Amino acid sequence: MRGLVYGGPGVRSWTEIPDARIEDPRDAIIQVDAVTICGTDLHILGGDVPEVTEGTVLGHEAVGTIVETGSGVAGLVPGDRVLASCISACGICRYCRQGAYGQCRGGGGWILGHLVNGVQSEYARIPFADLSTYKLPDRVDDESAVLLADILPTSYEVGVLNGHVRPGDTVAIVGAGPIGLAAVLTARLFSPAHIIVIDKAESRLQAAKVFGADTTVLVGSDDALDTVRALTGGLGADVAMEAVGTPQTFELCTTLVRPGGRVANIGVHGAPATLHLEDLWIRNVTITTGLVNTYSTPKLLDMLVAGQLDLGHMVTHRFGLNEFMAAYDVFADAGRSGALKVVLSR
User: Fold this and answer.
1) Which residues form the Enoyl reductase (ER) domain (predicted)?
2) Amino acid 312: pLDDT
């Protein structure tokens, strides 16, 4: 079979790899039917995630069909159509028992495309399969479902819920990539008064308006701080979400937030950011970080089935499963291509 293999910073290839096989009784093998590329994969290729070793198959977001299960897997049989979560859960350790699956100490957490081979391949091994997959109803299409593997629960849990978005809040979101757009979509569930999105690409700001942003700010042409203060009587945002993963965007969030406000960092960072405690300590600002736990995936899936989440505009480019190299080129050059999420399907 073939997979997208990491060959070190800046190096990737769609190449022959050993067939996926059961390695543990709790494993399942899926035929990958739809898969996408995450901004985190670009961070890996940029050398920002040194735990990923050369030869690892990337990817942690897929929809597939069960083709084989280990003897310890309950509730799944060949032919089941499933969402493969970006987080694997042993279900036994202290963190899993608390629902903090991202911090699993029993061999799970974020391991797909990170510590073990991921899902950007024709077939994939899914560890802890009965706790790390979700059966999909027929009415949910592959393109919508694959967005629930990572970006929707990540933005919802690490951005909206960690940031304690409440009715009437002013929410500033820095970054209008897929994570930022998913934050817009899920923040709207809590009826904020204003959602302001800041980005350097006009095409992504237009997408933010489609997803529900009230105000957009183009970096370099408008002053984000002036815009936020003008909408809040000079106070600043109740919640500022960082959805990029650079020192500059994190530091911008700390300037946008009002006294007593919350900064929710969602982005993956590969370099240190300055924490200006000399300014922040006196303003009662709360800063949260987090890796998604995916405890919200079933609820988000229910909302998707009920028509409460409109994901129709998120996927902008579609490729065949053997077109990974072209798909990465398009996704990595989003400023020019206008790409939000790319999906590769059989």
Assistant:
1) 7-344
2) 86
Q: What is the CATH number of the domain that holds 84?
A: 3.90.180.10
Burial of 193 (0-12, 13-18, 19+ CB in 10 A): middle
Residue 69: the pLDDT is 98
- Which of 288, 308, 333 is the endpoint of a domain? 288
- Structural domain boundaries enclosing 259: 153-288
Identify whether the C-beta of residue 243 lies closer than 8 Å to the C-beta of residue 267.
Answer: yes
| pTM for the whole structure | 0.96
Pair of tokens at residue 275: 């924490």
Do residues 18 and 140 both lie within one domain?
yes
What are the two backbone dihedrals, phi and then psi, of residue 266, each rounded to the nearest 5 degrees?
A: -105, -35
Angle of helix 224-231 relative to helix 247-256, nearest 10 degrees? 30
Block means of pLDDT (10 residues each) for the chain, 346 residues, are 97 98 98 97 94 97 98 97 98 97 98 98 98 96 96 98 98 97 97 97 94 94 92 97 96 97 96 94 97 97 94 94 97 92 96
> What is each CA distance from 36 to 4, 126, 315, in whole angstroms?
12, 16, 10
Question: Does 180 lie in the same domain as 105?
Answer: no
Residues 223-232: contacts with CB within 8 Å, 24+ apart? 224/172, 224/174, 224/196, 224/198, 224/252, 224/256, 225/255, 225/256, 227/196, 228/170, 228/172, 228/196, 228/256, 231/170, 231/194, 231/196, 232/170, 232/194, 232/258
Give me the amino acid identity at 24: D
CATH of the domain at 194: 3.40.50.720
Same domain, 47 and 63: yes
Based on the structure, what is the number of domains in the chain?
A: 2
